[in-house]
Amino acid sequence: MTTITPYRSDLRPGHDGFAQLVHAEWTKFRTVRGWIIGLLVSVLVTVGLGLLGPLSNSSGCQRVGPKGPIGQPQSGPACGGQPTLTLGPGGEPVTDEFYFVRVSLAGDGSITVRVTSLTAPSGVIHTSNGNSIGNGPGSPGLQPWTKAGVIIRQSLQQGAPYAAMMVTHGHGARMQWNYTGDTPGQSGAAGPANPRWLRLTRSGDVITGYDSADGSNWTRVGAVTLSGLPATVQAGLFTASPDFVQVHGASTDSGSTDATAVFDHVTLADGWSAGRWTGAWMHGDTIEGDGGDYHQAGGTFTVTGSGDIAPIVAGHGGAADPFITLTDIVLGIFAGLIGISVVAAMFITGEYRRGLIRTTLAASPRRGRVLAAKAIVIGAVSFVAGLAGTAAAVLIGSAIVRHRGYAMFPAPWTADVRVIVGTGLLTGLAAVLILAVGAMVRRSAATIAIALVVIVVPYFLSVAAVLPLGVDDWLLRLTPAAGFALQGAYPVYGQVDGNYAPWNGFYPLSQLGGLAVLAAWTALALAAAVYLLRRRDV
Amino acid sequence: MTLALHAEWTKLRTLASTYWLLAATAALTIAVSAAAATAFSCSPGACAPAQTGADPAKISLTGIVLGQAVVAVLAVLAVGSEYSTGMIRLTLAAMPRRLTMLAAKACVITGCVLAGSAVAVLGSLLAGWLILPGRGLTAAHGYSPLSLANGPDARAAAGSVLYLALIALLAVGVTMAVRESAVAIGLVLGVLYLFPIVSSLIPDYVLARHLEQIAPMIAGLYIQVTAGVSGLPLTPWQGLGVLALWAVGALMLGATVLKLRDA
Fold first, then answer.
1. What are the percentages of helix, strand and coil residues in chain A, rounded to 5?
2. CA nearest B175 in A: which residue?
3. Minimum distance, in Å, between the CA of residue A358 and any CA atom of chain B
4. CATH topology for the A94-311 domain
5. Which of A160, A232, A284, A411 has the largest count of CB atoms under 10 Å?
6. Alpha-carbon Rg of chain A, whole angstroms?
7. Which member of A67, A328, A444 has the closest CB to residue B182?
8. What are the 10-residue block averages of pLDDT along chain B, 263 residues in total?
9. Minimal CA–CA distance to A324: which of A62, A45, A49, A53?
10. Inside any domain, residue B219
11. Domain total for chain B?
12. A36 in contact with B at a CB cutoff of 8 Å?
């Protein structure tokens, strides 16, 4: 009678925790040379494409018509040095251009006017593409944000703090302050049949705006504090009319417009009294010519002006045109994402193709944990790749821009950080999504095709302006390509009709919204992948 | 060659995915085209061709930008699956003349794609013909109705079918060269969709224009333009020629790799 002792290995049993699983997946990833090369190529392509914009910019001084550039191209310094933008009190770039009929007023007081009409003088608008468009009633001459009213300014300097009550052509009465602030008052346009009364009062640093339909029943629209307002301020009447901009796909046609407003019942009260009125067109240094005019007949002022008092929208067109935007530099992730997609897909489909998945699942029978470990590895690696590529593109790109005598569109450093981290999240989540698709369909070619069709093609359709505006908005809201909103760098201003298109860096969703949509798709795909992985034999 | 063609045809037609992908090409192309036509709008009084710059043929054929992705997948899979399954060794054992095999494969795939894309293009034009007049592009506004008897429209239609066939040949060449479906699809779609993004990214007008002249997708799709042809950097047929050069280059690269490397 012999007792048979079963064989026992001398080796201590290994740990089989989740950390070991992640480590195993990391080992699988880093030991495949092709994947590491693919990832590095993705980073390099991201950086390289990002630098194309800074390296090739010359549009700042090169006029371009429909059939190509007009005249000789000029280099940056030849165009009058580094272009500059007026910055508002909040540090954002602003337009500060309008016709101003003003008096200097000391202490507290109030100014009241009645606006009886806001119209476009007849004439012709000459657009940047060489078209001539007739001005006048019903023409594009009068813009929705053409505005006229009363304004109190700290000084006459460009970008100075201000508060204003105004009527607009298309957005009713408004109170606006410091370029970015905007509150609606009564709706409806001003005209001879329905004149609009406007009032601003100063009390210390606080300016309060009122509007009224009849001059006796006043509604308070808003109150703002302009800290550091001096004893003597510049106050008076203004008219401004922003450029008309027409978008044809990715190209735009624009031209300056002007508008005429008629004011009467101009009253200075509560401590202020009328002085000598002077009129001048307020504008930056770079613009020449005459942007308006005013006539006074009795108590009636007729003020014609051009321009806008508003933030400048980043992107291509208008005053922002000579500036390289963050969007120009980070768009290269589009190419990087294709490479990352291929690597992420092969990370899972390679296991099926080689039969390695059977070994993997034999070693770690809890299948959900295997997929989780793979998701962590590919997500982290892709996050780092996207982050590193974008950070390098932004750092090198802005250095090149400065070196060549151009300038970046002004934005706080937090915008850079938001976009760089956001791009990392975009690539990380997209890689996990593709991994999940790969676990479901198990074939590399099909996985990549699905990944590119759901992530990259909607983005392409929007950015390359193949589809009309509106349709592409929905693609970027509903498909996983919504995640590209993580690259949104600039705020959208309701009081400026800008070209808020993806190729200018504006997405229909906020950064958080885009993150939520992409994360939802990723979670859904991961859940479906875990379900199928558990249910199917390998 | 006849036998080679027959063999390749048998391999392709007995795959279920071939039919699915061809059907998907037609369905996606027509769906996107119809969506683009439906989404078109012009404000009343501003519908004249000079104001909208609209090109009815091009709008009706918008779906090709998505359909080409499916065509590329079909062509990549037809070649790449032979490598991933090891079938290629059997194929080359049976047909040791490798270039003949490649030519037969290219012919058969092109034939299938031509048939599928003809359906896609005709369907898209039909959708445009039905939808666009309701969106303001009427004869009263100065647009001639879409018709294959109309020279530029016929050129846009026939050219779009050829465009998809050339995309398939490009994909066949690339896959022969890299021998891995996943990488091949990434490369083909990357080359197609990357150029338009890059050219929109470059502020330098002259450089962007040169880039558009060599971009396979941008230049190739000039064949669809029927309005403002004189403003294009290349004529429509030159544009399609650029894509043809890309396809020939890819095929030559694929043929060289096929000839020189062990399978």
1. 40, 25, 35
2. A445
3. 18
4. Jelly Rolls (2.60.120)
5. A411
6. 30
7. A444
8. 87 86 92 85 70 80 90 91 87 89 93 94 92 79 78 91 96 93 88 82 74 89 86 89 95 93 82
9. A53
10. yes
11. 1
12. no
